[in-house]
Amino acid sequence: MQPSxxxxxxxxLVEDNExxxxxxxxxxxxxxxDVVEAVDGRQALxxxxxxxxDLILMDISIPEIDGWEVTxxxxxxxxxxxxxxxxxxxxxxxxxxxRAQAVGFTSYLAKPxxxxxxxxxxxxxxxxxxxxxxxxxxxxxxx
Length: 143
Ligand SMILES: [Mg+2]
Hints:
five-stranded parallel beta sheet, disordered C terminus, binds magnesium ion
């Protein structure tokens, strides 16, 4: 039996830029998600395994271990291989989009990413945060 898709969902936000991290975490908490934060690849791996996130937002350019490698490692681990992972990258190149698919990212957002676009992409994969659950006027994204 599946738990309610809208209650108590935890996001892992991996982002080394403090301004971006504060903006994204603030808006994601505002709409009702629990957010844990990592500032480099080692923290990302540790929290992906310990915090049991429902979804990961992964900056590509991060210290220690980059987002490509962190995602590759998570995809090889049975405990984490099915977690949706959304790439956040400054590189909007077609090569990066193809590489993101090959490495196993679930989807891809090219920076600069507006906070509401981050929320919309998270909702597309795991549904609305608890404060938005049942709110009118929030149909699921098409496609
Ligand atoms: Mg970065």
